[in-house]
């Protein structure tokens, strides 16, 4: 039996800003059964506080400690590495999640690259390059290539990380999903080994295969970005496939 769960948010608990049918109840069953879980997400455009408020508006009762966004993983990773000060290239709203870090551009030991969207510009990229050239480590909240919006496909954080890697001839520490760094920080918070962890999500690679590679279990849900028949074509077959997160309590034998 699973001793701890990692549950993806977008596409698994919610789809298009609405809760998946039965998802709030599934989460409530886990809590009643005393199974610890972390809600995991690469979203970094909003602070943790807002993620929790959005979830609560959608009927999920969650504590901030139960939500583990890539930004929180990055802050934890940076504190553990002791790189100080950190120069974060993130939207102002995200700054409140970088607790316990000394923030400065001058003398930065790490440049943290997050979602800046349209705030990216040549000057900022060039200053980041100079910081890296002066020995700062490059840390990326994630390295997603693109994201889909109402106006079509947009550049995500990945292309900017790649530009800095290329210019400074360094390799970024990528912290968000599907990085091992992310899952290791999450397992550490849950005080669980991967053998005890089940990851549940709609992304057959990021949520499922990455955790199976670490010797955990990965359960795919047929909601969100799921494409019918995906599990049969996957390089790493999921441990199991569920119609939605609503079936999880039953799958766990609760
Ligand atoms: Mg997802």
Structure description:
This protein is of the alpha/beta class and 254 residues long. It has 2 domains: 4-42 and 177-251, HAD superfamily/HAD-like (Rossmann fold), CATH 3.40.50.1000; 81-174, 3-Layer(aba) Sandwich (Rossmann fold). Helix content is 33%, strand content 20%. Strands 5-4-1-12-13-14 form a 6-stranded parallel sheet, sandwiched between helices. The model has no long low-confidence stretch (mean pLDDT 95). The structure holds magnesium ion. Magnesium ion (MG) is lined by residues 8, 10-12, 201-203, 224.
Could you give the distance between the termini? 10 Å
The percentage helix is 25-40%
Question: How many DSSP E strands?
Answer: 14
Strand content: 15-25%
> What does the radius of gyration come to?
18 Å
* Overall pLDDT: 95
Taking the sheet with the most strands, its summary is: 6 strands, parallel
Q: List each distinct ligand once.
A: magnesium ion
| Low-confidence blocks of residues | none
Shape: globular
Task: Briefly note the structural class of the backbone.
Answer: alpha/beta
Widest sheet, order of strands: 5-4-1-12-13-14
Secondary-structure element pattern, one letter each? EEEHEHEHEEHEEEHEHEHEHEH
The level-1 CATH class of the largest domain: Alpha Beta
